[in-house]
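Question (not urgent): is this output format expected?
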Amino acid sequence: LTFIIALNYGSKLEILEATKSLFQDIIEKKIAVGDIKLTDLDAHLYTSGIPDVDLLIRTSNELRLSNFLLWQIAYSELYFSKLLWPSFHKRDFMRAIQAYNKRNRRFGKVGN
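Got this back:
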């Protein structure tokens, strides 16, 4: 289980910084433009080496992602709670897990 807390974090800035770093690798001829894969950009993110998110729990009755881990949640399941974070307890976490376990994860594929 990986639990990530990000302080003073913005996903758009993270993606920009990863792109700059990847561009520097191109300038230094560590990689050719035609050879770039998604995993190459992944390697330059702050979360490099951490698995992508399976379940994102959004508290505070907000129905937005707030610039949080935008790249890493591409195929995540989202769970929205009306509770504020300080009021989100173990039973609420278990409800989120139960809802997650009922979902059919397709990772972008169409159909069953």
